[in-house]
Automatic annotation (TrEMBL):
SUPFAM superfamilies: PLP-dependent transferases. Homodimer. The modification N6-(pyridoxal phosphate)lysine is found at K285. Its cofactor is pyridoxal 5'-phosphate. Belongs to the class-III pyridoxal-phosphate-dependent aminotransferase family. BioA subfamily. The lineage of its organism: Bacteria, Bacillati, Bacillota, Bacilli, Bacillales. It holds the Pfam family Aminotran_3. Keywords: Aminotransferase, Biotin biosynthesis, Cytoplasm, Pyridoxal phosphate, S-adenosyl-L-methionine, Transferase. The record marks C20 as: Participates in the substrate recognition with KAPA and in a stacking interaction with the adenine ring of SAM. It comes from Metabacillus litoralis. This is Adenosylmethionine-8-amino-7-oxononanoate aminotransferase. It catalyses: (8S)-8-amino-7-oxononanoate + S-adenosyl-L-methionine = S-adenosyl-4-methylsulfanyl-2-oxobutanoate + (7R,8S)-7,8-diammoniononanoate. It is found in: Cytoplasm. Its EC number is 2.6.1.62.
Length: 463
């Protein structure tokens, strides 16, 4: 069926190349033109309302067109929009750095700004490498990363990523990363139960430390949730043990909290749950509450001091982006941190996530096609499987997630599944009633798919 297409949609398709999309798919599924947003809702050009259950690609925290953030942004725009950040500075940048040091784990004392998550990863990788060079350990030039890791899509970030979908074609261009099998709690190779887990899978990483530590500069991980891989969750003990290995083998720990930072896992930062301080913590996405591109890399005095010397020694970290420390973005991020503080959002997240977990577990645990409903903080994920007993996945060619996504959109719910995994990562301003609505609508969309589309497909298979 050829969809009717609006003039704006037609003009979009004439010139816009959208991210992470096969543009041919847009022929029968044109882009939805969003005119405005308020709270957890988005409104398209026809006035149709959508619940943004994925926080617009994991960035929004306190709703769209948030009163406090918009006001702070507007005021800042009339005062100072941007200034070079080398040799110059400004209040939003200073105040934000102070606040970030205050709210992140102890020991992270220095803040380097960049303007997106991938760039923050590049900064951390480069800093770690240069640190070891300047500590007379030039042989330390490889990174260790986990299977199913996602750290962004610039070439350095892709090099440490482990999701084939994104980096396979680019393999010939990428760094020679050491790869260790990461945790896989749903399909645990040791058949451990989450509540009594002894993290036997640490042995995979430990092995790589033993073999490669002399050439390793850093290990990079996504604490508690490997998000892009399909919201794969693992316990804090894993992080705790990883930190010990890093100390033992003189390898930096880079915590990529781009997706999980700012309350998503139930604590302000995921590392808190393991009681660890990484050598580098990368932040973006929620940092500006979904308003503007900004990222920050926090690090320690030890790292900072290895670069601090007379100019002639050429030890400086010569990395910059034109928009480094943009005052608008910094002012907005500062407002986000004030909102966390003033409105006690971590407590709020606790109450809402407990409710979400109870309700979603009740709805999905016994569903014949749900292998698992899992949740950490305000991130909930439904893993659809072909066979509940064997956990056999649906073939990716069936594009189940994509089809359920389309059904849900018709019902006014924006999900954006990762393969066969549907997930919720709503803005924190969502109410209990709205949480229930998201779960009910998701359930309906799943039911509709399996009753109708999936059944039709089966008929085709036998024809
Ligand atoms: C999104 C993401 C990135 C990349 O951030 P961008 O701003 O999209 O470049 C890096 N790491 C993780 C864990 C992410 O989820």
């Amino acid at each position: 069926m050829i969809p009717t297409i609006s003039s704006l949609q037609k003009r979009d398709l004439n010139h816009v190349w959208h991210p992470c999309s096969q543009m041919k798919d847009y022929e029968d599924f044109p882009p939805i033109v969003i005119k405005s947003g308020k709270g957890i809702y988005l409104y398209d050009e026809n006035g149709k309302q959508y619940i943004d259950a994925i926080s617009s690609w994991w960035v929004n925290l306190f709703g769209h067109a948030n009163e406090r953030i918009s006001t702070a942004l507007a005021n800042q725009a009339f005062q100072l929009e941007h200034v070079i950040f080398a040799n110059f500075t400004h209040e939003p940048g200073i105040f934000l750095a102070e606040k970030l040091v205050e709210v992140t784990p102890d020991g992270l004392t220095k803040v380097f700004f960049a303007d997106n998550g991938s760039s923050a990863i590049e900064v951390a990788l480069k800093m770690s490498f240069q640190y070891h060079m300047q500590k007379n350990k030039p042989q330390k030039k490889r990174f260790l990363a986990l299977t199913d890791a996602y750290h962004g899509e610039t070439l350095g970030a892709l090099s440490v990523g482990g999701v084939g979908l994104y980096n396979e074609v680019f393999q010939p261009l990428l760094l020679d990363t050491v790869r260790a099998q990461g945790p896989d709690c749903f399909r645990c190779p040791f058949n451990e139960r989450p509540d009594s887990c002894c993290t036997q899978c640490m042995s995979y990483v430990e092995e790589k430390f033993k073999t490669h530590h002399e050439e390793l500069t850093a290990i990079i991980i996504e604490p508690l949730i490997q998000a892009a891989a399909g919201m794969k969750m693992y316990p804090p003990t894993y992080l705790k043990k990883l930190k010990e290995l890093c100390l033992q083998y003189d390898v930096h720990l880079i915590a990529d909290e781009v997706a999980v930072g700012f309350g998503r896992t139930g604590t302000m930062f995921a590392c808190e749950q393991a009681g660890i301080t990484p050598d580098f913590m990368c932040l973006s996405k929620g940092l500006t509450g979904g308003y503007l591109p900004l990222s920050a890399v926090l690090t320690t005095d030890d790292v900072y001091d290895a670069f601090y010397d007379d100019y002639e020694t050429m030890k400086a970290f010569l990395h910059s982006h034109s928009y480094t420390g943009n005052p608008l973005a910094c002012r907005v991020a500062l407002e986000v941190l004030h909102i966390f503080e003033d409105e006690h959002y971590i407590d709020e997240i606790h109450v809402k996530s407990t409710y979400m977990k109870e309700l979603a577990s009740k709805r999905f645990d016994h569903h014949p096609y749900v292998g698992e409903y899992r949740q950490t903080g305000m991130v909930g994920a439904i893993e659809l499987v072909k066979n509940k007993e064997t956990k056999e996945p649906f073939p990716s060619g069936e594009r189940i997630g994509y089809k359920i996504y389309q059904i849900a959109l018709k019902k006014g719910l924006l999900l954006r599944p990762l393969g066969n995994i549907l997930y919720f990562m709503p803005p924190y301003v969502i109410t209990k009633e709205e949480i229930k609505m998201v779960i009910d609508t998701t359930n309906e969309a799943i039911e509709e798919y399996f009753e109708h589309d999936h059944a039709c497909m089966k008929v085709h298979e036998y024809e």
